[in-house]
Design goal:
The complex is a heterotrimer. Chain A has a three-stranded antiparallel β-sheet. Chain A is mostly helical. Chain A contains six helices and three strands. Helices cover 59% and strands 11% of the residues of chain A. By secondary structure, chain B is mainly alpha-helical. Helix content of chain B is 81%, strand content 0%. Chain C is 76% helix and 0% strand. Chain C contains three helices and no strands. Chain C is elongated, with a radius of gyration of 19 Å. In chain C, 42% of the residues are buried. The chains are: A mainly alpha, B mainly alpha, C mainly alpha. Chains in contact: A-C, B-C. At the B-C interface, helix 1, helix 2 and helix 3 of B face helix 1, helix 2 and helix 3 of C.
Chain lengths: 179, 89, 116
């Protein structure tokens, strides 16, 4: 459905290595470990972990890092910083909804529609998720050809923060190199 | 140190009873689906807290599996209501 | 590990207990607010705002309180994965339900309509 040209050169090795590291770390975390993390290992368990992680990395590395895999490590580092800002927005969202339930702020819902410059699958999904986690807005529909979002907002304040200020569009465009 | 767990568990159980009003009287199908989803979320929290109260923390594996299954169930029902069939041909 | 020795209290374990209790109390408060919002709001779309944001946050706070209480152990990893799964899965389920409602023709409530 998306790009069908195979990955050449640098991108493929980085994605296989990253998938192998993630799979092996999860295997080691989920098997039994003592209080000091190095208690009870034997080489049989390590060998099974390495075989399973290699099989997963060779067959499924294109699910984790789609596309041609250019500049994956830079995007990953910027994405981690963006995720930290997003956790702060989740806390603000819960406090905002609590104030609207208790009656301190009014409830005045409306529908909004706007366009962005993001085109790839991962960037559209990240932005849609971020809209749902921001105070006062939830995504309804995404059209991938023109980057068009249909959003339900609960008041004029959060709606203005999304269409007039456009802080989140700039941040997501910076993380995915403004596709 | 068992007392705070018991108080929070009773509180979460009380909010589950509040949610059943929307499950019974909600006008239409979609309100009832939202109430079922919320009760599923609170069931996971209750499983973890009961595991701490009776001092057997092995319920957390069950909670992890139930979270995944309830999420897949909600998405399946939403897709069926929107399109009319589950597998698009 | 799950019971505290009362005869010899040390200040670090008391501080951990107080921090865990504060986190769980905040989580309980957000869960109550989320359920009251489910009963009180006038429309389906606004009720999804209440449960999708407040309910998820309350659950994450209760599980983080349990993680602080437990310390650095095997069970903490499993609790972390339950809460991390809900940060990704909560908004996705909310979006799926809202899309199904919009394309089936449910009307959006404006201020001044009768409550539905």
């Amino acid at each position: 459905m998306t790009e069908t040209t195979g990955k050449t050169g640098n991108g493929k090795a980085v994605s296989i290595l990253l998938t192998f590291i993630i799979a092996f770390t999860l295997w080691m975390l989920f098997s039994y470990w003592n209080k000091y993390l190095l208690g009870h290992y034997d080489p049989f368990r390590l060998a099974r972990g390495i075989i399973v992680a290699v099989i997963i990395a060779l067959t499924m590395h294109q699910l984790l890092i789609p596309g041609r895999g250019e500049k994956v490590l830079v995007k990953l580092r910027r994405w981690c910083l963006y995720a930290l800002w997003e956790l702060w927005q989740i806390a603000l969202a819960a406090v905002d909804v609590a104030m609207r339930v208790l009656g301190i702020r009014p409830v005045n819902p409306r529908l909004i529609e706007f366009e962005t410059t993001l085109r790839s699958d991962l960037a559209l999904t990240t932005f849609g998720d971020s809209i749902t986690l921001t105070p006062g807005t939830i995504t309804i529909n995404i059209e991938p050809e023109r980057g068009k979002y249909l959003v339900h907002a609960i008041d004029q304040g959060p709606a203005d923060a999304l269409t007039v200020d456009q802080t989140m569009q700039k941040k997501v465009g910076y993380v995915f190199m403004e596709e | 140190m068992i007392a705070p767990f018991v108080i929070i568990a009773i509180l979460v159980g009380f909010t589950t009873i509040l949610c059943t009003y929307r499950a019974v009287f909600g006008p239409g199908t979609l309100n009832r689906i939202v109430a079922a989803n919320v009760i599923g979320t609170k069931a996971i929290v209750l499983l973890i807290l009961v595991g701490y109260i009776i001092e057997r923390p092995h319920f957390i594996d069950i909670a992890l599996m139930y979270a995944v299954i309830s999420f897949i169930g909600t998405i399946m029902i939403a897709k069926y209501l929107e399109r009319g069939d589950l597998c698009s041909r | 590990m799950l019971t505290i020795d009362i005869l010899t209290p040390d200040p670090l374990s008391t501080l951990i207990n107080i921090l865990a209790t504060i986190m769980m109390a905040m989580g309980g408060f957000f869960m109550i607010v989320g359920s009251v919002g489910l009963l009180k709001f006038p429309d389906f779309y606004t009720r999804l705002h209440a449960t999708g944001k407040c309910d998820t946050m309350g659950q994450i706070l209760i599980i983080v309180g349990c993680m602080i209480y437990q310390g650095f152990d095997f069970i903490t990893v499993k609790l972390f994965f339950v809460s991390a799964f809900y940060i990704f899965a909560g908004p996705a389920a909310t979006h799926a339900l809202m899309k199904a409602a919009y394309f089936t023709g449910l009307k959006v409530w404006k201020k001044g309509d009768p409550k539905m």
